[in-house]
Amino acid sequence: MIVDLVDGTYELFRHFYGLRRFNKGTDKPLGAVTGVLTTVIQMLEEGATHVGVATDHIIESFRNDLWSDYKTGDGMEPALRAQFEPLEEALRALGVAVWAMKELEADDALASAARIAGDDPRVQQVRIWTPDKDLAQCVRGERIVQVDRKAKAVRGEYGVRAKFGVDPERIADYLALVGDSADGYPGIAGIGPKGAAALIAKYGVIEEFPQGVLGEQRDRALLFKNLATLRTNAPVCGDVEEMRWRGPTARLADWTERMGAPKLLARAQVAGAGLASPATPV
Q1: Average of pLDDT values for 85-101?
Q2: What's the mean pLDDT in 213-224?
Q3: I need a surface site. Which of 3, 31, 96, 248 has the fewest CB within 10 A?
């Protein structure tokens, strides 16, 4: 089986601002939700069988306590913020596993689900659908890969190494040194991507750097590594079968009516036709 893990927060942002190019400043209340559902249904139409979607609409996590400048939800447009809970409910109505994170982030949920699926011998491949640099640390050979729709790339271990200059297991060290503007930490002054890759190649993980390499910045680098390291113990699921799609529930009809997208209901029903264990109609 193949397991598909989707960054729902990224997808909602992508569709929201994608629609902005065409809506002339008038945001449809569920426009981005419709876009994400369309994307997920297309995956199901193309044969996806085990799907999980992670969101983190609160944005803040334990990392904000570690670094005061870490990303927050401040400044998020109300029209976008208002679509997170509807997205989660609409996806559940579709019958898809949804993990709405609060104390942890969506990335932590994806990393946790990837670990569970990657440890299961029944799983042939895990595909993590997000361009987020953090998730590159989860890649393992060609068994756990990252799908970057924006770059139209599927990155296994070789792809991660080609892009960043380090192995997936060293992505947290790499990001600690170069920083991640999207997450709100700056990295270590004077160390760019090539320099970070060279240091990691020479010394290994930051903990093994000789004391003089980072000097007074060592503690800061270790803090940033902690921020960049994804947690793999998020409460997502106990078994990959909890991610099996069994078809849409009866509630999807109400959601597609609210979205003004009846064709999505028909597409989901066709995609789910013939499944051995249909979703419970609730």
Answers
A1: 97
A2: 95
A3: 31
